[in-house]
Amino acid sequence: MKRIALLFTFVFSLFLHSVMAQNKNSCAHCKMDVKDKLHKAEATIKEKTLHFDAIECLINYLKTKKESDFSSLKVADYTTGELINAAQATFLKSKAIPSPMRAYLSAFKSKEVAQEVANKKGGQLYSWKSIKEKFESSGFGALHHNHYRPDAHAPIGVMGDHLHEKGGFMVSIRYMNMVMDGNKSGTNNISDTDIYNSFMVAPQHMTMDMYMLGIMYAPSNNLTLMLMQNFAKKNMDLTAQMMMGGMTMLRDFSTKSSGLGDLKIGALYQVFNNHKTSFHFNGSINIPIGDIENRGDTPMMSDIKLPYAMQLGSGTFDITLGATYKENFANTSWGTQFLGTLRTGTNNEGYRFGNLYQLNVWGAYHFATNFSVSGRLLGSSEGKLKGIDSELNPMMVTTANTNNYSNDKIKAFIGLNISFPQTSTLKDMRFGIEAGAPIYEDYNGIQMDEDLSINLGLKYSI
Question: Which CATH class is domain 4-19+147-461?
Answer without folding.
Answer: mainly beta
